UniProtKB/TrEMBL annotation:
Pathway: Purine metabolism; urate degradation; (S)-allantoin from urate: step 1/3
Keyword Oxidoreductase in annotation: yes
Organism: Streptomyces solincola
Pfam families, per the entry: Uricase
GO terms assigned for molecular function: urate oxidase activity
SUPFAM superfamilies with a match to the protein in the record: Tetrahydrobiopterin biosynthesis enzymes-like
Binding site for O2: T57, N257
Entry protein name: Uricase
Active site (UniProt): K12 (charge relay system), T57 (charge relay system), H259 (charge relay system)
Keywords: Oxidoreductase, Purine metabolism
Function field: Catalyzes the oxidation of uric acid to 5-hydroxyisourate, which is further processed to form (S)-allantoin.
Binding site for 5-hydroxyisourate: T57, F166, R183, Q231, N257
Family as reported in the entry's similarity comment: Belongs to the uricase family.
Keyword Transferase appears in the UniProt entry: no
């Protein structure tokens, strides 16, 4: 049976690069995990084994490290733009480059006055601890003319210990869940947002400030929404971002409901007045949705694990 070659790409995945910027005695860290995927005129390498149009994946790896030195890493998005532009504009067979980046944040170690005699101020300026809140992610795609930049985060765990209810839902003979009028609402946020910057003639967003502001609006919406469902909270989080950040047209969230169930303490003669909970890790409800600026078509993949 005859076969044809379909969509294909290649590159070097998960290039870990750490860039230290030394500003006198004060150091700054950018810690990235960079994956490069290239596509274009690549039929021969699959069909005949000819490598004439194939830039080695080892070269893409070396480019990541060289660019960290040559351009620095101002932001994950800007670094990805440099890489994508380079691969598409310097290699004729390459028509499209996709750069995916995870960023791991670090913060400075703070010391109390009592410890200052053991740790000098110069040392504090270059001592860090890995942040445990979330992993920042981005995907930059370039085809020689148009850009698509999707940023986001994953593994950001948040909780409201009150101001959440869940009742009035459909019930059938298999329903055992009790209605809740004061419950814990917790989730582990995975979110992606797409910028409307698409060509070099547009003013480029301030990627670092945009990330900080998106996260701020996301968390504020989570905290300030009196929630009757996680779906309602999700929509408020996305709407707050769209309404406050003009550079963003689309937001997609995947929110697993990190269930907390009241423990029955009656067998021990104790009353559980919304104080003691069992934290269940699985199974869990998974709430996913896209929030769009009016008139905009969705482009973020539904399965965000592929970003």
């Amino acid at each position: 049976m005859p076969t044809i070659l379909g969509q294909n790409q290649y590159g070097k995945a998960e290039n870990r690069v750490v860039k230290i910027t030394r500003d006198g005695d004060t150091h700054h860290i950018k810690d990235l995990n960079v994956s490069v995927a290239l596509s274009g005129d690549m039929s021969d390498v699959h069909l005949s084994g000819s490598n004439a149009n194939c830039l080695p994946t080892d070269t893409t790896k070396n480019t990541v490290y060289a660019f960290a030195k040559e351009y620095g890493i101002e932001s994950a998005e800007q670094f990805g733009i440099h890489l994508a532009r380079h691969f598409v504009t310097t290699q004729e067979p390459i028509h499209r480059a996709r750069i995916r980046i995870e960023e791991y944040s670090w913060e400075r170690i703070e010391t109390s006055d009592a410890n200052s005699k053991f740790i000098g101020s110069d040392e504090v300026k270059h001592s860090f601890v890995r942040k445990g809140q979330e992993t920042r992610v981005s995907e930059i795609t370039y085809d020689g003319e148009n850009w698509q930049v999707i940023s986001g985060l994953k593994d950001l765990v948040v909780m409201n210990s009150t101001n959440s209810e869940f009742w009035g839902y459909v019930k059938d003979k298999y329903t055992t869940l009790q209605e809740a009028y004061d419950r814990i609402l917790a989730t582990q946020v995975s979110g992606r947002w797409r910028f409307n910057w698409s060509d070099d003639d547009q003013k480029m967003p301030n990627w670092e400030r945009s990330y900080e502001q998106v996260k701020k609006h996301m968390l504020q919406a989570f905290a300030e929404t009196y929630s009757l469902s996680l779906q309602q909270t999700l929509y408020q989080m996305g709407s707050r971002i769209i309404n406050n950040r003009s550079e963003i047209d689309e937001v997609r969230f995947s929110l697993p409901n990190k269930h907390h169930f009241l423990v029955d303490l009656e067998p021990f003669g104790l009353k559980n007045d919304n104080e003691v909970y069992f934290a269940a890790d699985r199974p869990y409800g998974l709430i996913e949705a896209t929030i769009l600026r009016d008139g905009v078509e969705p482009k973020i993949p539904v399965d965000m694990t592929n970003l």
